[in-house]
Structures are given as structure tokens and as C-alpha cells.
Amino acid sequence: MASTTSSEAPRNALIIGAKQGIGLNLSKKLNERGWHVFVTVRSLDKDKASIESVSTPFLQGTLCSLILTLLTWRASQISQVASQIFQVDFKQEETIKVAAGNFGTRALDLLVVCVGVGPNPMDTWEHSTEILMEKFQVNTVVWSIFWQSNISRDALQRASAGKVITISSNLASLSNTQDNRRGGSIGYRLSKMALNLLTVSLSRTFSFEQTSITVHAITPGGSPLQ
């Protein structure tokens, strides 16, 4: 993506899940290129309360202090690059509606959803119904909730050429025998396969509706979470 020039209006990006990893670093890069970056994170206060509730003296002392320092650093990193931060918990639809209202009538040039849960457990036989449902809720169903809020579709249509990026995985490929030779991580694979189908379906829907919105799937490979 080219940098914006002084004669161009800054473009708007919405990064879903920007507290760490891909979301945080993508936010930094877009900010460096002159974009207005809007991000979502879950409440850092909730993370802090969770950590401070640990009972062992060691965790309350040394390790707790280190983790809280990391959380504070992450928050400062996000604050430095974001035009606005929305606190969103995708298991609570009401927080999505609030974010949609706060985003207002801006045009959205780029939407990237980085929120997700990883491939563990690796063992197929360890997958309970609860684990499978969590994978689908966070990796796939989160998209339908977001579209229903209209924050993305309407805002993308207000841009001249809105783009949607979904984060896929080699583990969701039916033809990639190298990454799929051992099986396993079935919940993660299924949820990402469903996301791939959603990506194709959204792309065709926007094309059929004759909008300028395009949808793309990318696979970043193994990515550090920090």
C-alpha cells in the first residue's frame, strides 16, 4: 500500500484485535504511512484484574509485575498509533453495537479482522464440543456479528474502493499436503475453512451487488504474538 501524500485525504483503517501480534504491528505500519487507524481491543483493565486475582505470592509479585508491565506497554503502543480505540468483546454483541455507533458515518477504506484463537489442542481426540464452538465463534461467527452491526458494510461502501482482509491459514487448505500431512487441530482447521468460504461468499456478494468492495484472504504463516 502506497503512502498517502499531502494532496490526499488520509485513509481510514479498522483493525479488529490490535492488542498484539499481527493487529498491533499492522496498525503501526498503517500509521507510519499516514492512515487514520481505528482499532478494537478487549478491556486491559479486565486483563489486569484477572492477573491480580492469582493467589500465589510469586505470581502476585515478580511474574504479575512483568505481565502488568507488558500490558501497559501494549496499551501505550496502541495509543501511539490509533486515532480511536474501541473496547470490544466479540462474545458480547452489545459492545459491537456501541463501537458501530462510535465509528459514526466515516468512510472505511480497509477492514482487517485479526482476532482469533489458535490451533491448540493439536490432538483431534481432545476436541470437545465446547472447544469446537469456541473456535467457530471467534474465528468465523465473529464476522457475521460484525456485518449485522453495519459498521463495516455501510462504511466500506462510503469509501471509493473499500477492502476487506480475512486472516486465513495454511492449515485450512485442502490441497496443501505439506501442512496437513498429520491432521490434528481439527477445530482450528474447520473454523478457518469456514472463514475461507465466507471470504469467497462475501466477495461474490459484493460483486453481485455491483459495489467497489473487494475481499481478500491472506495467510501470514507462523506469527509471533508479541
TrEMBL record:
Pfam families: adh_short. It comes from the Eukaryota. InterPro entries: NAD(P)-bd_dom_sf, SDR_enzymes, SDR_fam. GO terms for molecular function: oxidoreductase activity, acting on the CH-OH group of donors, NAD or NADP as acceptor. SUPFAM superfamilies: NAD(P)-binding Rossmann-fold domains (SSF51735). This is Uncharacterized protein. It comes from Clonostachys chloroleuca.
